[in-house]
Write a structure and sequence with these properties.
Elements lengths: L3 E2 L4 E5 L2 H15 L3 E2 L2 E5 L2 H6 L3 H13 L1 E4 L7 H6 L9 H9 L2 E6 L17 E4 L9 E5 L3 E7 L7 E8 L3 E5 L4 H18 L3 E5 L7 H24 L3 E5 H10 L5 E4 L1 H15 L5 E6 L5 E5 L5 H8 L9 H17 L3 H19 L2 E2 L1 H4 L8 E2 L2 H15 L1
Parallel strand pairs: 1-3, 2-4, 2-5, 5-16, 7-14, 12-13, 12-14, 17-18
Antiparallel strand pairs: 6-7, 6-15, 8-11, 9-10, 15-16
Helix pairs in contact: 1-14, 3-5, 6-7, 11-12, 12-14
Bound molecules: NADP nicotinamide-adenine-dinucleotide phosphate and magnesium ion (MG).
Magnesium ion binds next to α9.
């Protein structure tokens, strides 16, 4: 069989623990036999991040800017325990945070659905993708406990001009107060990422805030989305037959539950934090959730939504068999290869990405799956495969499809 030749490289970011093991298996079994893989490799494993003082993370993000598409393995975000475990020079920042800050992107999370795993919401027939704004609001707030009586004000002191004041509350007893902010530029980036992604995957975009109550703060979000939509996207959306739909957040929540799915739901930072956990759980499993970071300039980084599956890795190190689900990591690769193929006009690569996904889902539908899925699948005859056999079972089917 002739291997597919690539034109431009993908940025490949290796990672940690169990997902690093899966990464190697996926390349050996599902990619290298079929593609002359061209990647620019960055090792984001914690040891090498430490060795390079985390420079490697910054370089990988710069490389995504250069080549447009990256695929990332899950990585450890260090804490005090990891500092000891890996003898780190510093508690390095979350690689995802660093990459997101450099690309100024929005994260889209979508579940991978299979017939035998039913969402808890009966009428959800298609995946719901959540887009979470990743800047500001309560995640960058300032808070104060107010003890006793006194006046709290909002004060803006312009560099040149007159001071502006707004009374928040005249406290006659103890209480609490918080101040938060956002930036038009960040909201604009968020809006463009969402509109571009909707065009990309040909799905309606929903957005919701509480603009009736928050007449300046939330209303600014609503207005920015609306202005950008009308100026830059209205025609493109109509041509593609998709819709931009704005409503109040409480109305959106009710409508999402009653819907059949199949839309992108853009959320303010806090709404996205909360709703992404609800949607993921309602669809079945974190191990079946993909994640893609899209920058307003149109750079893409694909990964699994889950972490490095530490517990399984420690079992693996003890020589015990693991049954870790590689689906989300496989879909990170297929997503990146498809995007690379689309950008380079390489039909074969797009086709291969589709077949890889098809073979993966077929494997599960035929009853071969990892333990996490066996626990929630409604199929009668299930074979629980270990991490390696599951990937090999996908390979058998992939060979027949390509
Ligand atoms: P995790 O890796 O997502 O795993 C939590 C639990 O979820 C696992 O113990 C396992 O449950 C189940 N699970 C997750 N993915 C699975 C899969 N593919 N197959 C089967 N089961 C799966 O979260 P964590 O253990 O809390 O975090 C481990 C490390 O990952 C941390 O150092 C964290 O910093 C990092 N992390 C990285 C990313 C990222 O790079 N994007 C995201 C989140 C966390 P059972 O044990 O019950 O089998
Ligand atoms: Mg959350």
């Amino acid at each position: 069989m002739k291997k597919i030749k690539m034109i431009n490289p993908l940025v490949e970011m290796d990672g940690d623990e169990m997902t690093r093991i899966l990464w190697g298996m996926i390349k050996d079994e599902l990619l290298n036999p079929f593609i002359d893989l061209r990647t620019e490799y960055y090792d984001l494993g914690l040891e090498y991040r430490n060795e390079t003082n985390d420079k490697v993370t910054v370089e990988s993000a710069e490389a995504i800017k250069k080549y447009g598409v990256g695929v990332k393995c899950a990585t450890i975000t260090p804490n005090a325990d990891r500092m000891k475990e890996y003898d780190l020079k510093e508690i390095w920042k979350s690689p995802n945070g660093t990459i997101r800050a450099i690309l100024d992107g929005t994260v889209f999370r979508a579940p991978i659905t299979v017939d035998s795993i039913k969402p808890y919401v009966r009428n959800w027939e298609k995946p719901i993708t959540i887009a979470r704004h990743a800047y500001g609001d309560i995640y960058k707030d300032v808070e104060m406990k107010i003890e006793g009586k006194g006046k709290v004000e909002l004060v803006f002191t312009p560099e040149n001009g007159e001071e502006k004041r707004e009374l928040i509350h005249n406290f006659t007893e103890s209480g609490v107060v918080l101040g938060m902010h956002n930036l038009n530029k960040s909201i604009e980036s968020f809006a463009r990422s969402c509109f571009n992604f909707a065009l990309d995957i040909k799905q309606d975009l929903w957005f919701a805030t509480k603009d009736t109550i928050s007449k300046k703060y939330d209303h600014t979000f609503k207005d920015i989305f609306n202005d950008i939509y009308l100026a830059e996207y209205d025609e493109k959306f109509k041509k593609m037959g998709i819709e931009y739909f704005y409503t109040l957040i409480d109305d959106a929540v009710a409508r999402v539950i009653k819907s059949e799915g199949g839309m992108i739901w853009a959320c303010k930072n806090y709404d996205g934090d909360v709703m992404s956990d609800m949607v993921a759980t309602a669809f079945g499993s974190l191990a079946m959730m993909t994640s893609v970071l899209v920058s307003p300039e149109g750079n893409y980084e694909y990964e699994a939504a889950h972490g490095t599956v530490q517990r399984h890795y420690y079992n693996h190190l003890k020589g015990q068999e693991t049954s870790t689900n590689s689906i989300a990591t496989i879909f990170a690769w297929s997503g990146a290869l498809r995007k690379r193929g689309e950008l380079d006009n390489l039909k074969e690569l797009v086709n291969f990405a589709n077949k890889l996904e098809e073979a993966s889902l077929q494997t599960i539908n035929e009853g071969v799956m990892t333990k996490d899925l066996a626990l929630i699948s409604s199929l009668e005859n299930k074979i629980i495969a270990n991490s390696s056999d599951f990937i090999k079972a996908i390979r058998v089917r992939l060979e027949k499809l390509v």
